[in-house]
């Protein structure tokens, strides 16, 4: 079966020579000059690959002290000061293949087998990516591959759920009742004065479209996606440990992974503060430095949150004003398209604002993160701040539509007004879920298309064009000298590598679209899958052909990004529970069918959800100009009728539906959390084969070190034997034999300590 699977899988494998030897696992240990005789060194020039050699050179350059000043250490500080422009490893020649395909270097192999859109159906050569770019970048592409791969089953289930909605839309009783002209539901006006009464059947299209996403299969899909998020994280943990084992990362110490050097920017800030302190020493004021720092950090953060909510509120005002103006238009076609026009234009405005604020927030997060001394602390805090700002920016409009729109409208005769008599906007007759679906789909697709095509393709090419124009003069001088361009000149013309944070951030925000509000848009995993298939090749092409080669950095995991993913997975359970319970009509339909329906079916559901209003109770100036013979109009709410003693108060049905909604939220959360814990418990973090291989490797390491120490001890014993043999009777030199014995005892203790340390590590 393994042979058959290999033959079936062969067309999807990249033609990478290095992967042919991937099954051979050599016993490995952290490099040490004291144990050179134990390593399998066939050639000193090839013992370390290019990525490792580049990392060693970079470490030497970074630790080199500038002897003329005590405050400058390393190449990174000199770059920060502007002494040097850049420092980067060189690529392995040109990425284009000119000669024989068998003589390709690693860069050419990656370009041909990985960084092409035509290779979208092939697996990624992750081992070669790690060899060329280092473990940190290799883990990013491995994570992106696992995420994209697991989007396939989610997309299939989402298509099935959407297909169920399409198949049942013609038999859905609430939709049929809304479209039935014979029921003759006369609805209350959508605005004061200028708007007329209208018939519910005119919203037939909205009701049918809403059923495509608001149906019983949506609840199943929300549960499925919550479990999918847990399965994705568990699968990635296993994949990550497998890669750590095959890439010899399981035994590296923490100090080898972490960069404990002070940041150049931190040193610059510290030096500037010292200079200011000395300058203002005579005029020193008694201030609380911690309070100052907290204030400096809190105020910009609060300003950014206020800016985001101001943008959302501005779009809300736009929707309210434009809806009122279009409703007052004498053109009947304009009146009929009010909701579609306002919703579409408002979402586009939201998208533009989100894209603009995304760029601003990236710079703000960098500005707010100046205080950490170490590079790892700086990166984690920068990621967290940027994520919080961009999360708020991307999802604030969606949260508004999902949980706030239509909740504070009031009722006919007692509406809530803002800005000189404008009524708060209401949900469509089919509910707010269809508007949430439109909002989510446009923002998600817009961010992916615009960021991929403009920000990731257009802007880098524009920057490259600007750099080429600036370097045009120097290029002409080189042509005059008739010297062929060197590799460092070619690489310097490429864009600098600015880290993996933008790449991760884009995918994390997309993961939020896929998991947080997936109950309103089952096709979100499908669009994410299509985007990621292109994204992998786009990022690969960028790293291979358009960016300078980054310094290879060792990393055991993806860092803080895993914690963010885990938190979003748990948060998605709560969000989907509230979306199904409060945004969709799933709970009101269940309550009606099992508590109020006389036939146990959905017949009469629309009439049950519409309350009555006496048109004579309109406030002066708010009633329609042409009311005709209409005495009662309907509006969507659970309130007592005008002939009730408690007219227009919330009815008993309202409290029953509210109780059912809250009960569903509690039940859904506990059920999904329990199932998630079961899935996480049932899937071990470390694969069984890896566990066995790790134990075997540690045992072999113990045997190697014991054999080495045994040989050393035997050498000491032989020296002791020679000492005893050569000593003459009556000779007064006992101290030499005693020293040898003591040396033997020390070696024995050392061997015991080594074995104990390895065994303790194995136990842990």
What does this structure look like?
- One of its GO terms (molecular function) is intracellularly calcium-gated chloride channel activity.
- One of its GO terms (cellular component) is plasma membrane.
- Its main location: membrane.
- InterPro entries: Anoct_dimer, Anoctamin, Anoctamin_TM.
- Keywords: Cell membrane, Glycoprotein, Membrane, Transmembrane, Transmembrane helix.
- With 764 residues, the chain is mainly alpha-helical.
- The protein has 26 helices and eight strands.
- Strands 1-2 form a two-stranded antiparallel sheet. It has a two-stranded antiparallel sheet with strand order 3-4. Strands 5-6 form a two-stranded antiparallel sheet.
- A hairpin with a 2-residue loop joins strand 3 and strand 4.
- The protein is elongated and about 125 Å long.
- The C terminus is likely disordered.
Gap from first CA to last CA: 37 Å
Give the uncertain stretches in residue-range form: 284-295, 731-736, 758-764
Largest sheet: 2 strands, antiparallel
Query: Biggest sheet: strands side by side, in what order?
Result: 1-2
Residue-averaged pLDDT? 80
Q: Radius of gyration over alpha carbons?
A: 34 Å
What's the helical proportion of residues? 55-70%
* Tally of DSSP helical segments: 26
Proportion in β-strands = under 5%
From the spread of the alpha carbons, the general shape counts as elongated
Number of strands: 8
Q: Output the structural class.
A: mainly alpha
InterPro entries: Anoct_dimer, Anoctamin, Anoctamin_TM
Family: Belongs to the anoctamin family.
Transmembrane segments: 140-167, 217-236, 340-362, 382-403, 508-530, 662-683, 736-760
Keywords: Cell membrane, Glycoprotein, Membrane, Transmembrane, Transmembrane helix
